[in-house]
Amino acid sequence: MPLLSVDRLSTHYPARDGTVRAVDDVSLEIVEGETVALVGESGCGKSTLGKSLMRLVNPTSGQVTFKGRDVAALTGKELQSVRRHIQMIFQDPFASLNPRQTIRTILTSPLAVHGIGDGKSREAIAASMVAHVGLPANSLSRYPHEFSGGQRQRIGIARALILQPELVICDEPVSALDLSIQAQILNLLVEMKSELSLSYLFISHDLSVVRYFADRVLVMYLGRIVESAPTAKLWNDAKHPYTQALLAAVPDPSRRKQAASITGDLPSPHNPPSGCRFHTRCPLATDICRTDDPIYTQLGGGHTVACHHAQ
Amino acid sequence: MARLLEVHNLSVGFGNAQPVKGVSFTATPGEMLAIVGESGSGKSLTALGLMGLLPRHAKTGGEIHFDGRDLLKLPEKELRGIRGRDIAMIFQEPMTSLNPVMTIGDQIVEVLRIHEKLNHKQARLRAIELLDLVSIPDAAKRVDDYPHQLSGGMRQRVMIAIAVACSPRLLIADEATTALDVTIQAQVLQLLDRLRSQLNMAVILITHDLGLVAQWADRVVVMYAGRKIEQGLPDVLFETPYHPYTQGLLAASPRLKADYHYRDGPLTEIPGSIVSAAAELGCAFRPRCPVARSACGSSVPALVQLSAEREVACPYVPAIAEASYAASVRR
After folding, report:
1. Which residue of chain B comes nearest to A261, CA vs CA?
2. I want to staple A160 with a disulfide (CB 3.0 to 4.6 A). Which of A87, A93, A213, B10 is the partner?
3. What is chain A written as a DSSP string?
């Protein structure tokens, strides 16, 4: 049984004229110990999907099953008990920590909320977590502003891991960091994963980071997952024209001054194109793409694609 | 080729802090020069210095020769004639650098009327031409749009249209594509590359993205903690980086080794952070450097020129050690 399975999940936001279909009919699975990356351009719905899984945003329809329980239907105490096992790491290490709380408060609050231990044992857990993520031992009584960006991200990671979750949703955890710090944080996440046997949903727009970090990749476009495959397979054998374009757009020294892979911008999720949502930018688009929504084709080896023209 | 820009020993200080500590580089017409560095390296302050846009209380030193004139010595009035006309700049955030209550057409017209003395009608026609030049579809219609009606990539194109309105000879792009998605980023760089050759304009690309530099730049300057620590042609520099910092950056970058996976092992880290550079008397990279020796703490390593395009500031790079050994033997 997968750790998390998402079945036909949709999250729509009401807007002044109609609805924004941020996540539209998405299904996915994460098995224990797996790192699944969710990639796509800004506005494709990847963050909304992440938040929907934790019920930070309420999904409009569909099921989110975590260890046999439907997260989408839970309320109150039951929801809280599931959330203990699903935690989140955010992009901006400056905005996601309360500047007026000490690291002690930031790290012990989740324990207090979930009624774990007493004051003294919480302090001990926090102190060991601080050491675990490579922060200086005297960090507990300090405030976020006393730390650098990379260290703040370590605090964010410590906060997410202190409840010993099973699934961690990482929403662009390294995109705000300098390159020299990115590697430190990625290595820490890998280390924590094997030490605490975590599974990750890794939301990112940076394909080179995903190439290193993910076991499997889901490519999202305008609220839909258009292709999914094991990482190496996707890199070598991407079938969806959008995935191919994304991969080709990653700057690469061996392709000096090469032309851009696709033209045009992401259409508005407010009023997505008919048929296949990618047809307005797709080099292969034909009539059927303008009218019919492509269904998922299983290509074997865990490779799935939604395209009329993928072979 | 004649040099368009010659920056000599530029420094920028605020009170006791010295975020830019003597940087020299040149740019020639039609060239794309990349200045790479992480936050705190001084790359953006260097750019603002070129534009004369540093805050009034900033203390500057050195020389910026643009077309034979030292920009640091020019009175503000003359600088205004150069800024926006001969030297233009585009910024990271296209949302905040456009005026939200003016149509994009009017924002281009404004530049043209100030610098080119065109009347409103001529300027509007030219604005449409410019939008067309930066590949905005339906330029004649979009000219009356407000910034909020455009996507991020389109806004950055408008910024570029404003920047190149007076055919500048130098365009500074400060992290101009950082906020954009990869597919849009590729489009914008392609546009900059085309304009560079069409207008024979030098472009200074300020960025932290090594992949981008490797793909698009003609020459690369690497900065760390306010100093240039290495310079070279991109293929040479990325093939054999000399400075331990450049080596570390390339090793830490997942982008440049496409087949490496976390199950194969950890990424190479550069330990610590740039914050440690502030207290250093010697080489600013010493606290993070894997090959640091005690001598590194006593004096700032000099930038040594190894060939026409190759410079590096680390005495323990084998190529430099050999060069200085040869020199001492000759003596």
Report:
1. B183
2. A87
3. --SEEEEEEEEEEEETTEEEEEEEEEEEEE-TT-EEEEE--TTSSHHHHHHHHHTSS--SEEEEEETTEEGGG--HHHHHHHHTTEEEE-S-TTTSS-TTS-HHHHHHHHHHHTT-S-HHHHHHHHHHHHHHTT--GGGGGS-GGGS-HHHHHHHHHHHHHTT--SEEEEESTTTTS-HHHHHHHHHHHHHHHHHTT-EEEEEES-HHHHHHH-SEEEEEETTEEEEEEEHHHHHHH--SHHHHHHHHHS--TTSTTPPPSS-S-PPPTTSPPSSSTTTTT-TT--HHHHHSPPPPEEEETTEEE--SS--
